[in-house]
Specification:
Blueprint: H1 2-20, E1 24-29, E2 32-33, E3 40-47, H2 50-53, E4 54-64, E5 71-74, E6 78-81, E7 89-94, E8 104-110, E9 118-128, E10 133-144, H3 149-199, E11 203-207, E12 212-213, E13 224-229, E14 233-234, E15 239-241, E16 246-257, E17 262-269, E18 272-280, E19 286-296, E20 301-310, E21 315-316, E22 323-330
Parallel strand pairs: 2-10
Antiparallel strand pairs: 1-3, 3-8, 4-5, 4-9, 5-6, 7-8, 9-10, 11-13, 11-22, 12-21, 14-15, 15-20, 16-19, 16-21, 16-22, 17-18, 17-20
């Protein structure tokens, strides 16, 4: 009799132990949230120990505050939403009755509000090993954390000030960058100007190609142009005009002759008679030469001007006996 009593007591304890096993488990991640700060809450429902208790899972569902279920999953992965705004939720579920421990139901609440706080329940309906319909559930609370509004405002104020300081620094860097760009542009232009100066070649040489009489005050025109780099010499007027400022060298060779002719010619540079050449013909002509080095501004002129022409028919001779040349030494 005593043995029967002990066996009955053992079986009652064993049955009570199995009845206390919860074959479904709910988990909230996180289990509290702040409005406008928490982007997502995930509710997870998974079987716990159903390998012993469940032979076949029929349904797993999630509800809130005992109301109409938000979502459920039926084998193998059919999701059914309740009358809620399911755009606010995102669910995923799967029931594997070959190995029930692999079954699950996930519910993601996107940007939760105060209305989402409350008690959530996971319910699992299944057939046990004896083929009997069973239902088990597990609960968890999702808590709204209000926080300290004044603290949040202080943090936002601090963040705004930090952003303003950062903006000021960005603007300072931008101004410095613009100054560097302008300076770089100026240096690039100076370098370009220097390259232009280095590349610039100014030189000319021209001769008289036809004998002609001269009189006082004439500018001698050298029409046979042999060189005119920089296009400073004008073969129509006989005048060289400096295309750039710089140091120039000029050379003048003249042969004046016939009939005891006397010639005095100035090399006029920038409006000044810089050097005079004198010739006096005795037989067939007399040749003279002068040179000068002078600084010219852009636009200054150089020319050969007859100061005096005397004797019988004074004239300048051709066959390149009379040549006017010039060259830019440096700009």
């Amino acid at each position: 009799m005593e043995a029967i009593f002990k066996w009955t007591f053992f079986m009652a304890c064993l049955q009570q132990m199995f009845e206390q096993v919860t074959p479904i488990h709910i988990d909230l991640t996180p289990n509290f949230f702040m409005e406008a700060a928490t982007t997502e809450v995930t509710i997870t429902c998974v079987p716990d120990g159903t390998g012993v208790l469940a032979k076949e899972i029929l349904l797993i569902e999630i509800s809130k505050n005992g109301e109409t279920p938000i979502v459920n999953v039926q084998p193998p992965s059919k999701l059914n939403y309740g009358p809620n705004d399911f755009k606010h939720f995102e669910a995923q579920g799967f029931i594997n009755n070959s190995y029930v421990a692999d079954s699950y139901l996930y519910l993601r609440i996107k940007y939760p509000t105060k209305d989402d706080a409350g008690a959530y329940t996971c319910v699992m309906s299944y057939l046990d090993s004896a083929g009997l319909l069973k239902q088990d559930r597990d609960k968890a609370d999702l808590i709204l954390h209000k926080g300290d509004n004044s603290s949040i405002e202080d943090k936002l104020d601090t963040l705004q000030k930090s952003l303003e300081n950062l903006l000021d620094r960005v603007q300072e860097v931008e101004r410095a960058n613009q100054m560097l760009i302008a300076e770089n542009r100026n240096q690039s232009q100076q370098l370009q100007d220097l390259r232009e100066k280095v590349r610039l070649s100014v030189a000319f040489s021209a001769a008289v190609n036809q004998e002609k009489n001269i009189v006082s005050g004439d500018t001698i025109v050298f029409t046979d142009v042999m060189l005119n780099d920089g296009q400073g010499y004008n073969e129509t007027t006989g005048i060289f005009t400096a295309p750039v400022a710089g140091l120039y060298a000029f050379h003048l060779v003249l042969e004046i002759g016939q009939g005891g002719a006397v010639g005095e010619v100035f090399l006029n540079v920038a409006g000044k008679d810089m050097v005079k050449m004198y010739t006096q013909d005795k037989d067939f002509g007399d040749q003279g030469a002068v040179s000068v080095v002078s600084k010219l501004n852009k636009g200054d002129a150089a020319k050969a001007v007859v100061h005096q022409a005397a004797g019988i028919t004074p004239r300048i001779l051709s066959e390149r006996l009379c040549v006017f040349s010039g060259v830019l030494i440096r700009s």
